[in-house]
Amino acid sequence: MTDFDQRELRNALGRFATGITIITTLGQDGKAEGLTANSFSAVSLEPPLVLWCLLKDSPSLAVFENCSYFAINILRSNQRDLSHQFATPAADKFGAVEWSEGLGGVPLLPGCLAQFECRHETHHEGGDHLIFIGRIENFRYADGQPLLYNAGRYGVAAEHPDNFGDTAEASAFDDLMML
Description:
This protein is α+β, with helices and mostly antiparallel strands. It has a single domain (about 5-175), classed as Electron Transport, Fmn-binding Protein, Chain A (Pnp Oxidase, Chain A, Roll), CATH 2.30.110.10. The protein has helices spanning about 5-15, 60-65, 80-85, 165-175; strands at about 20, 20-25, 30-35, 40-45, 50-55, 70-75, 100, 105-110, 115-125, 130-140, 145-150, 155. The strands form 3 sheets. The protein has a 7-stranded antiparallel β-sheet. Strand 7 (about 100) and strand 8 (about 105-110) form a beta hairpin.
């Protein structure tokens, strides 16, 4: 056990900007399940593996532990409301959300920046979370801006002026971004 203040540790970890995903699956009863997560990462290209993490006391834990397939829906910058909807406890998070069926019937959300349909490969204990490993069996993506999360707030990406070789604008951009 460490002597870290958990709130302060969360604050420090939250300084790593991440994309926002909605992980979806079907329960054994055929009910669509989903949750917002920013703990997503590529693991391997060969075989094609990704991971995401879920708190052990999550109400959705048993559904994801026992699913055969899940989908990772990476959100666009204009999907903040969808992120909030799936992050808020509710009996039916899908409510008025239209979706299509992916592999194993998993819900695929419309308008996402990228989607990965994964076979549930395995899951592992990881402290107060379970780490889910999925084998990508299908994917799609489109151009656009991702929805980001940093320091407890939503954000959007901005292309850095250095990409265009404009050092004067880059300096001003850096000053602006440090506010």
